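Trying the structure run again after the queue cleared.
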Amino acid sequence: MLAEALPDSHVFKAFNTVGFYHMAKPDGSAISGEQLTMLFAGGPAGRGAAEEVVAAAGFKPAYVGPIRYARNLEAIAELWIHLAVPGVGTAEKWGHDFHFQALRK
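Done. Tokens:
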């Protein structure tokens, strides 16, 4: 809706697929020691700028496609909360020391 409301702007979705415990440690030192990926979505125009912002925050940018895929990133965030936050969903809690990592060969 934001992209439609602001047609001359570049709208991206990022920074919601990483738990807050790892925002300060994008180098992965709290988990595996590997730089953490940050999934992001948005149109092709402005993608380079969005990648720069993600990289400047210390994460490895991982583009997932146009802004319509923002809803998929929201689903990943919802799953993280479901697994990490006591009383939200599953009886088995994972704690906060996990991250959904995008790996490429």
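The radius of gyration is 15 Å. Worth checking whether this holds up in the mutant runs.
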